[in-house]
Structures are given as C-alpha cells and as structure tokens.
Please model this.
Amino acid sequence: MAERLAPRRGEWIDRNRPLEFSFEGKKHTGFAGDTISSALWVSGRRLLGRSFKYHRPRGIFSFADHDVNVMVQDRSLLNIRADVTPLEEGQKLRAVNTVGGLKMDLGQLNNRLARFLPVGFYYKSFHKPAKLFPYYERLIRKAAGLGYVTPDEERRHWGKAYGFADVLVVGAGPSGLAAAAAAGEAGAKVVLVDENARPGGTLTYAEGANGGADGMLADLLRRVEASPNVEYRAETVASAHFEEHWVPLVHREDGMTKMRAGSVVVAGGAMEQPAVFRNNDMPGVMLGSAALRLIHRYAVKPFDKGVVLAANSDAYGVALDLLRAGVEVAAVVDLRQDGEESDLGGAVREAGVRVYTGHCVYEARAAKKGLGVGEAIIAPLDVQNNPIPSRAFEVGCDGISMSVGWAANAALLAQSGCRLGYSEDLHQFVPVELADGIFASGRVNGVYRAEDKVRDGERAGILAARHVGEGKAADVPAEVPRHPGPAPSHPYPVYDHPKGMAFVDLDEDVQLKDIKNSIQEGFDSIALVNRFATLGMGPSQGKHSNTNGIRIVARLMTKTVEETGTITSRPFFHPVPMGVLAGRSFHPARRTPMHRRHEERGAVFMRAGDWFRPEYYATPDRGREDAILDEVRAVRLGVGLIDVGTLGKLEVAGPNALELIERICTGKFAKLKVGMTRYALMTDEAGTITDDGVCARLSDEHFYLTATTSGVDALYREMTRWVKVWGLDAEVTNYSNAFAAMNLAGPLSREVLSSMTDLDLSEDAFPYLGVREGRVAGVPARVMRVGFVGELGYEVHVPADGGLHAWDAITEAGKAVGIRWFGVEAQRRLRLEKGHVIVGQDTDGLTNPWEANMGWAVKLDKPFFIGQRTLKILEKRGQEEEQRGGEDRRLIGQRTQDRKLAGFALVYGGEGPRPKECHLAIEDGEIIGRVTSIAYSEALGKVIGLAFLPADRAVGSCFQIRTDGGALVDAEVVKVPFYDPDNSRQKGGQREVTYQGGKA
Amino acid sequence: MKILNCPINGPRPVQEFVFGGELREMPDPDVATDAEWTDYVYNRNGAPGLRREWWYHLASGTWFVAERDTGTNDVKKTYLYGDEVEHG
Model:
C-alpha cells in the first residue's frame, strides 16, 4: 500500500481505524472515512472500472458522485458509486460492467471495434430482419445491464419518512451554511442537506483558492450549530423539486424523506466540467477538484507528476496544492492566451512551474506499462482556439488535472420553474427569473469568491425566511454581484483529434465525432442529439457532458449557447435505488370475520381488491379441480355455505330514499313491497353497466342495497354526491365492513337454517326474493332469499362481530346433512351454469344492459335514472334501423347493439387445450369476439362459458376459440341458462335432482 | 405532492382525495336534444383555465368543490357544494 500524505487538519479519514475489504477478489486496506475509490487509489490501483460501450479503462474522474464508470457491487447492493460510497469493513466489491473481470474484460474488444460501432449503431443495426430481433434483444439486454441481480440475498428494506421545514437549504457549502444560519437566526425552522459526508463544500478542499478557508468554515459551522432552528442532514441528496416545494431527500443509508418546505434555498454549487481531448478518459486524467478532494479529504496523492490544464484561477490553486502535497507539477497548460494574471498565477510561476499560455492538452498517451497516463501531448492554440498539432510536444506525467470551468448545479431550479439564461460573462447558465419561494445562492447563482458566497447565502437565507413570514425585522439584503474579473469557465474547451476518442460524455462513451455525425444525420436540435447519441442519457444524466455538448452543438449549428438551449433534468436528477422508491411496500389487506376459519380449513385464498377470499378449500388427496367440483356438487345436491362478507352493503334511508334509488338504478322500485328484494342494476351517464346488486326494502323509507365487492366504494361515493346535487333528503351509509354475510345455498338449506332461527321459513311466509329481519343463532340478522347460484338459498347478514358465531353455528347445524363450505371458484361455476353475469368480469367499460342480456332490468318508461337518456337514444337508433329495413342486419330486433353475451358450450368433451377467459372467438380466421367466463360444468358434462359475440349469432351457430399456443377449439352457441332454465330450483319448488355428477 | 384544503378537514395531502371531474350542470334530459345530451356525456373541455371541480376526501367522505386553474395547477379556493363561502 502506498503512503498517505502526512496527517492534515480537516482530513476526513480516521487513521486509527483501518478497514479491510476486497476488490475483484484482491484484499485491500483503507481507513474509516475513505471512499472506496480513495482507498483503491492510495493502494496504487488506477484501473477501477470499465466504460459502458467500449469497456475502456476508467479511474477517478470527477470524484464527486458522478464517476459512473466506477460502479461496484457489494453483494445485493448494485451499482454503488465507488467515488463517494464510504468504505466499510469486509466489503466484497466487484466492478459491474465487465465480461470476465476488470483486468481481462472481454468487452474491451469493443474498444478495438470502435470504428465499426458508430453513433446510432444499435438503432440502425438491430431492427432488420425482424425475425432476428429476439436474438438481438438478448444480446442487447446482456450488454445493457449494469450489475448482477442476487435473488438469494435477503431483501433490504428502505425507510420512508415525512419531513417539514420552513426553509430547506440544499447544499452545505459556504453559501448554504450562511443561508441556513441566517434563516435559522431569523426564526425559521431550517433543514440543511448536503450529499457529502461532511459540510463545508469547497471550503473542505479548495484551500489554495480560498486562503483562510479554515477560519471561515469554523465560523459558519459555529453559527449553524448555535441555531436551534437548523437541522443538518449529511449524505442526503435533494433529488427533485415538485410543486409546492415538495422535495424528496434521498439518504445514503436509510431511504427517503418526503420533505415539504415553505421555501427553498438552492445552494448546490457548481459541477466542474472536463475538457474534451483525445483520451481524456484515461485513468490519471481527472478534474482539478477531484485531485484536491483526494489530497485534502483523504490525504491521497492523485499522481506523482502532473500536468495542470488551466482556464481559470482554480487551476492555479490546484497547482499550488499539488506542489504542497509533494506532487511534481510538470507544466501548467493554460487555454487562455493571456494566462492567469492574479496573485495565484504569480505564485505558481515563482514556484518554478513551467506555464504554457495559449496551449492545450491535445492528447493523453498511456504509459508503456499499465493503463494510466504516461505523457501529455501539448499543442499551442491559434487565435481561433484551434490546436496546431505540427508544433505539439510531449511532457511526461502520470496525471493530468483539468480546471477549465464549471456548470451550475441548477436541476432543482429548472424543475421548480426558474428561468435560466447563459451568461456570456461567466460562460455558465445562471438563474434569470426565480420561481415563487425559490432562492439561489453561491456558484449556482454565479457567485464564486468564498466571502461573496457567504454574503450571497446570507441574503438568500433571509429572503427565504421572510417568504415564510419570519425575519421581518431583518433588512432585505442587497444583491451580491456575480463573479467579477475573468470568467471561471472557458467558453469552448473542446479539442478535436483525427483519431477520435475525445470523449464528451464518459457515461456512455459519447465522442466528439458522434455529436458531429448526429448533426450530419439531421438531428439538428440539442434534444435530438441527446437521444440519438445518448449524450447525457447515462447514469450521471449529463452532469459532466451537457455543458460541453450544448457548446459543441451550438458551434456546429452556428448558434449561440442561449439559442441552442438547455437540457431539462427530469426528477429525480440523481439516480435513486429502486428500493428507496419502493419503500416498505405497504399493501393493505382486508379479511372477513370468518377468515381464521377459512385458514384452519385449508382455504386457498385469492385477492379481490384488498380482500382475501377463499378460492376453494383444499382437501387431502383431491386436487384443485376435484375440490372445486366437490363444492359445486354439495350445493347442487345438498347444502353449501360461502362467505360473502366482502359484498358491498349500503343502507339508504330517509323521506327521499326511494327517489334516490329510483334515480341510481335502472329498474322500478316504487312498487317494491316492504319485505321484498329486487335485482338492482346501475349504469353511468353513458349507459354503461357499472355495478349490480340486490335492493331490499326494509320499510317505506329504509332500503338495504348490496353491490359488488370492488364497485361499492365508487357507488357509495357517487350516491353521496348525487344526494348533494339533487338536494335529496336521504342518507347513504356504507356498512360493507360492519356486516358479515354468508350465503347458505342448496336444496337442504331451509332445513339447516330452520333449526336456528325464529323466522318462519315456510314458502308462504318467506318466499323467493323475500327479506326478513330476525335472529340467526341468536344474532340479529337480515336474511334474503336469493338465487345467484341457482338453488334454494338464504343470504344471512349479521353484524360483523357476530359473523364468526353465526358461521360456526350454521356449520354445526349443517353437519348432519353434510354441509360443505364452498369458495369463490365454485360460486362462479354455479352462477355460470345459470348464465348469471358478473359485472366487471362478463362486462367491460363499454357494455350496455342489452348487450349483457339485461334489458329486462331497464325501465326506460320511468321518470329518470342515470344513463336513461343515453339508453333512450340507443333504443331509438335501434328502432330506426328496424324501420328502415336495416342496412345493418345485425341490429334488427336487437335494439341497438353489435355484440351480445352469448352462452356457448365446447363441442369436444373436455380433452385437449382448454380455452381461458379473454381468449378470442374466431370465425373464418377473423376475430368476432372474446370469452368472458368459462368452466367445466359437471351438471351438464360440458365445458360452458359466456362470450361476447356478434348480436345475430343464434343458438346452434358455431365458432372457434383460439387458445394459448394458437390451437383452435370448436364451440357452439347454446341457450342460457344452461342449467334449470325455469329457475324452479331457486324458487324452492323442485327437490328432485337430475345430476350427472353423482347422487346426494 | 399537493396539499388540498378540505372545507371540513383543512389542508390534507392530495393522496387522501379522489378527483370527481369537472362540475358541470346536467342538461334537462326531457328538454335536451340528442346532440346536446351526447355532448354533455362525452365531451370535456380540456383547454387550460379556471375550472370548478368535484373533489372527494376519502378518509371522511366529504364531497366539495375546488376552483383550480388547470394551466398552473393552482387551487384558488375550495368550498362545499352550494356554499361558495371561501374557507381558506
């Protein structure tokens, strides 16, 4: 392991806590406080990762959370950014984007093939011939992924929290610290966040440029700590801005805080930008700020002998700091013809460093051995900023630092609706017009000198506090002028080379020539170039490429940067682990009072919305199909019991209760007698079926209305709204959770129930469709005679806390006659045999009542119901067609419909491929409809179902159903109901059983 | 994430609410022509601007009216149906 620099004041590492870890199978040591990259770099490693497309070697580049080619995996944690992720004891790390390991990466063949992989290669190459696409797709998918999913690892759960603040300050550099302190002192509750492990921003590393930074940082931290109003969160990225100052704060360790702030100070600073030249991606080439962070935070020498590429004062600070760290500075290469005129420039020259003004680094060349930089090729620039290769010369070095400019970290500003403009004085985008409650300070605002940044932060902090009504006593601070003197950024640090490999975007290996080619191909706007060349579309989302990309496009299109425009950083502007977004994966679950019993009996549950319902009860030695058929048979021949507690249950009461029901439902209820029920169908204003249920009249002004499990919430909501709109004196109450419900069905159901109720169950006293209130097993109950499954049946509704008792009592009473519990699947088959429609399964978002064979439930001659007017128009259209003799023969006699739910039976006995719901109905090779329900009926000995077919398909006509895999199965339209067409069984008249499946 | 001001429960996060569509007067079904009725059922005004909308607070079952600028997503005021007094 190479030596660290001597201990430095303010360094972030703890030399008393060495940590062991492995990288690509090799053991390494670092210190607590190191990042993975700093620990690897100090050990002498230069190859830390492979690039995305060409698999070129990559090392430390930005060292600021944007080194996306140096992503590693630690067990189940994918795509960790090594440049900022803290080192931990025992980490087992490997690079994510290699084929066969980092050193011998087979993917680097792509580097040799680069000239055969031009821009747009994938778009152009992999769509023809179409039949080969599945093969291409596998290849592309393999190449596209980063990291390895480890399904065996335990799932990591990330937390989610809600946060509230008067003022959110983003960035804890000098201006952010000052803003937080000022806002806190003004009385606002402040949350201050920074993505780094420690606060201070540039004050923690750029000491050459910020003389006396230590004192300034200590002062600011003291002020922030002294304010009880300021809460500081380290390692936290404010990763997006949504309306009303809602900002997701993503924490490195523990998930996300959804922060709602009264106002926001954006003090996110600026991101240093690279120069573009040949091999500017080589390990050893890095941003000046990256070199400084290595030295000051981690006491790591970035390289031994470096060339400093310069276009601003920062570069000279870098040169001085390198010298102090014992790095030989082989040359300072200044892109500017005039060089640096400040004291810093003088200090560098006095130190004896050779400074070349008006020169550029034209190319980096690899060392003879190894993959890092061995020499820099330096070329003079003409007055047009073009390199003169004929006069180029070499300077030996093992590192090149680049300090050529900055880009405002303005994503939050852009997302919040601030307008940004390009300053020709600074050569960067700065806010021109701020959105309401948004304030910017520091480098993002174009303010660069440390003392100016503090003043600018102070100003922004007070304004932000005043925005939330605090700090009224404080004076409104004056604007701080933007950076005076030479611009901190070079207008065009881009140098072409005939051999290419001059990278604009390291994320996805976008070269300068790729942008040129994109424009030649006709992609003539920055947004199109982005997509075609994948510029700024990698994981760093253009943080190091968009600025140069825009400049290049502007120059090639002969436009200004302002005219070329910016690139919108969408939320989240920094990648977020999927687990953080998923959070705790909270799924509400609803269970009926009888749930425990179902579990005990081996119920196999299915979800119905949030509800758990038994699909069937598993029995030993019987498979699913047999168990279901057993349940069906029990209901047909004896008696069965099903939990229907998930049904929607509404009470409608009041003087206008009848009026409300009349207006909501399609049928007539005025003459419904107390003690009787009637089928209730609901449509929307377009006449489409929305729900159905049973309406029971308990008294003149009191109704009990059931609805479907999934539909009741919407129905209840709509009914309460209409009550308000119509000004009706009626109260709707949703009792869906308050009542348990069970359906006792089968020819023996009366016998079972009569033993435990005070109700007279005789046919005369309690006829079909009657409703009675009494007691069942001692529990107050509403009992309805229903026929959904086509047998004599009683639906028993009891208060939820009596549900389990009633269920147990009925089960006990039924034991003597072999009562059997049945699940949802058996119920579906029983009702299918009756041809009863399930709203939402057999109907869709366009089904009108006639299409579902429920015209009988629609009374167009009553005064009004929702959907009536539309259905009248449909009816009229159907009649007109009829009178005209019907150009469209399908409409004749069918009112208005071009499809109809028809019953069908498969022609074969049940062998071969079984069609499923949603399979298509086919006739002469054309699609004519689809299956909505299908199941085997033991009573009929056939596979039966319902399907939407053209309205004119009569009983006896044939069609085919296309099953999974494409096989066609013959089906015949048959009469509905399939079973007991006279409904004599549910009405209680018939007890004799003709049944193919077996005997009672 | 937006905050909506429920006239009964005060400011609450928007996830607690269900959007109920624009508040539109139903034409008299006995008077309206077929074309007028069809227009009412199927056509919506999508142009950005100030709209009166139905919103429903799920947790408490409260229907109310919000006046919202659909261009800026700015809610000007909320009140119970038939009660245009501003609640904040």
Q: What stands out?
A: Residues 887-895, 996-1000 of chain A have pLDDT under 50 and may be disordered. Chain A has 24 helices and 47 strands. The longest strand of chain A covers residues 255-266.
